[in-house]
Amino acid sequence: MTTLTITALTKDFKGTSVLKGIDLRMPSGEFVSLLGPSGCGKTTLLRCIAGLESPSGGTIEIAGQDVTHLPPEKRHLGMMFQSYALFPHMSVLENVRFGLRMAADRPKAEQKELAMRALERVQMAHLAGRSPAQLSGGQQQRVALARAIAFEPRVLLLDEPLSNLDARLREDMQIELKELHRTLGLTTVFVTHDQEEAMSLSDRIVLMNGGVVEQEGAPEELYGAPRTSFAADFIGAANLLDATRAGSTASIDGTDLRIVLTDEGADGRGRVMLRQEDLRLSSATSAATPVPVQILTHVYRGADVVYVVEFGERRLRVVAPRHEQVLPSGAAALGWRDGSALWIGA
Questions:
Q1: At CA 104, angle to CA 98 and CA 105, rounded to 5?
Q2: In this predicted model, what pLDDT tens digit does every residue of 293-339 receive, in sequence order?
Q3: Which one-letter DSSP state was computed for residue 84?
Q4: Mean of the pLDDT values across residues 31-57?
Q5: At what angle do helices 108-121 and 167-184 cross, to 10 degrees?
Q6: Would you say 148 and 80 are in contact if contact means Cβ atoms under 8 Å apart?
């Protein structure tokens, strides 16, 4: 069982604390995304796992072995970087074989066999004789991935590997990466700043903020039940309204609006979260219980329409299906799906 366990991990750079006591346990075969904004510590954490950075404190264990101070080549990890780092003077096959050759513990024939097997898994065996310059960006990405899995690593580390691809190819590679993970069953740690990417690929998301774990859980948990304003806003860009809670009712600051809450929470100050897709807009005259708003503008995105509306002194975003009639700018009524208003305490 290749379980990855991180305990009280810290990392300081010239007096600046980048990781502040990270505790994580990643069961064998799990796909975990480290998600967060630039500077949150996710790449530093990955580099510590890889052995490319030395922690200031704490431990890293792989399959029960303490690898905290082992060099990278002794950890039996596969790693794929944002820049694919392919050698231009080597063929595709030799690029994939490179890591096996450096390990020097397998005969040449076996190295080639493992390299070709890895290329077959990423559907690149037919291009084994080409040079990287003869490949597209997506093909180079597949070669880099084949190199990372060729020697059958215990853990696969992926550092924003899809960020250089265009939108359509990126979506295709997300599907292929998920299928490859299902086939190989590798414990995988994936670094990204893209919340949609993390949601689509992960068994579990570890949301980081300022060197600590803000929240972790299954994608649907982080999206549906964020515990902090940062988590709510970073994953899904929620509408957050400052409010005061009393029992099952929240009073929205600066308005006479009272919102009924169905989730538990302590009385006092906090915020009401309303997801953009849970809101509904209608003409002001047709709404049974209208919350009056002003539609300022809308953006057509193909699959849906995003409205920007003004409510008091706030601006909210509403996502509506594309098949609904587009409402013009001006007065409208705002509502929301029953049970969709969630409370986030201060």
A1: 125
A2: 999 999 999 999 999 999 988 999 999 998 988 999 999 999 999 89
A3: -
A4: 96
A5: 120
A6: yes
Question: For residue 174, is it left (φ>0), alpha (ψ between -120 and 50) or beta?
Answer: alpha
Identify the bridge partners of residue 187 per DSSP, sorted by sequence position.
155
**For residues 17 and 41, what is the distance between their CA atoms, to the nearest angstrom?**
10
Q: Which of 56-65, 90-99, 277-286, 318-327 has the highest mean pLDDT?
A: 56-65
Q: How far is CA 314 from the centre of its chain?
A: 29
If phi > 0 it is left, if psi is from -120 to 50 it is alpha, else beta; for residue 135 that is beta
Q: In what order do the strands lie in the sheet with 239-246?
A: 258-260, 249-252, 239-246, 268-274, 342-345
Model confidence at 190: pLDDT above 90: yes
CB 68 within 8 A of CB 59: yes
| C-alpha–C-alpha distance, residues 119 and 103, integer Å | 19
- Tokens standing for 237? 């860009």
For 158, what's the count of Cα atoms within 13 Å in the CB-facing half-sphere? 32
**Angle (nearest 5°) at CA 169 between 165 and 174:** 95
On the question of pLDDT at 288 being above 70, the answer is: no
Q: How many CB atoms lie within 10 A of CB 164?
A: 15
Ordered domains of the chain (ranges, CATH): 4-224 (3.40.50.300), 237-345 (2.40.50.140)
Q: What are the backbone dihedrals phi and psi of residue 205, each rounded to the nearest 5 degrees, phi first? A: -110, 135
* Predicted TM-score (pTM) of this structure: 0.90
Q: Where are the alpha helices (DSSP H) in 225-326?
A: 229-234
Residue type, 244: T
User: What is the Cβ-side half-sphere exposure of residue 269, based on CA atoms within 13 angstroms?
Assistant: 3
For residue 320, give the nearest of 299, 304, 333, 301 by alpha carbon: 304
* Amino acid sitting at position 77: L
φ/ψ bin of 122: left (φ > 0), alpha (ψ from -120 to 50), beta (otherwise): alpha
